[in-house]
Amino acid sequence: MHAAWIAFATHGDPGWAPYDIMNRTTMCFDTESRPLDDPDAEQRSLWDGRR
């Protein structure tokens, strides 16, 4: 995570694709970090159409 913050602060790029509404790419920081597309799709879909 520290390396991602440094890369973002230095170059404006944390090292993974920017978030967009189609893919909803989110970085999962763990022992082995990896980008995930729409990791909470099931929970998020419960809120579709509700405000």
Descriptive account of the structure:
The protein has two helices and two strands; from the N terminus they run αββα. By secondary structure, the protein is an alpha+beta fold. It has a two-stranded antiparallel ribbon. A hairpin with a 5-residue loop joins β1 and β2. The longest helix has 10 residues, at 2-11. The radius of gyration is 13 Å and the shape is elongated.
Low-confidence stretches: none
Number of strands: 2
Question: Please, what is the oligomeric state?
Answer: single chain
- Order of SSEs: HEEH
Strand content of the residues, in percent? 15-25%
- Main sheet strand line-up: 1-2
Fraction in helix? 25-40%
How many angstroms separate the termini?
A: 33 Å
Overall mean pLDDT: 90
Rg value: 13 Å
Principal-axes geometry comes out as elongated
Number of helical segments with 4 or more residues: 2
Largest sheet: 2 strands, antiparallel
The secondary structure category is alpha+beta
Task: Please sum up the structure shown.
It contains two helices and two strands.
How is the secondary structure organized here?
Layout (H helix, E strand, L loop, with lengths): L1 H10 L13 E4 L5 E4 L3 H5 L6
Antiparallel strand pairs: 1-2
What brief labels describe this structure?
2 helices, 29% helix, alpha+beta, elongated, 2 strands, two-stranded antiparallel sheet, 51 residues, single chain, 16% strand
